[in-house]
Design goal:
mainly alpha
């Protein structure tokens, strides 16, 4: 049976990992024309721009699911912000 420390280590590894589809060609988050800092901005306009770009991605739903599953606490993933994911988690746990 895994110890609490081992489970915490696994969760940390999952949080820092990238989704498996991130290497697919043509993803908006990997487009060199898009500012990579856009996905981690604190500026609401830039967050909205990042979300709009995410919605053009064929993996938007998978990315959002991955971010929820791995409890990503920063950045825009699957057109969701950290705040969106935190609210979704609260609703599920309520």
């Amino acid at each position: 049976m895994p110890t609490v420390a081992r489970l915490a280590t696994r969760l940390t590894a999952l949080r820092s990992a990238h989704p498996p589809f991130i290497q697919e060609p043509g993803l908006p988050c990997k487009n060199p024309d898009n500012d990579p800092d856009l996905w981690h901005s604190r500026n609401n306009i830039q967050l909205l721009q990042a979300q709009a770009l995410c919605r053009t991605c064929p993996f938007v739903d998978e990315c959002a699911d991955w971010a929820l599953t791995t409890q990503q606490q920063h950045g825009v993933w699957g057109a969701t912000t950290a705040k969106d994911r935190k609210q979704a988690t609260r609703q599920v746990n309520a």
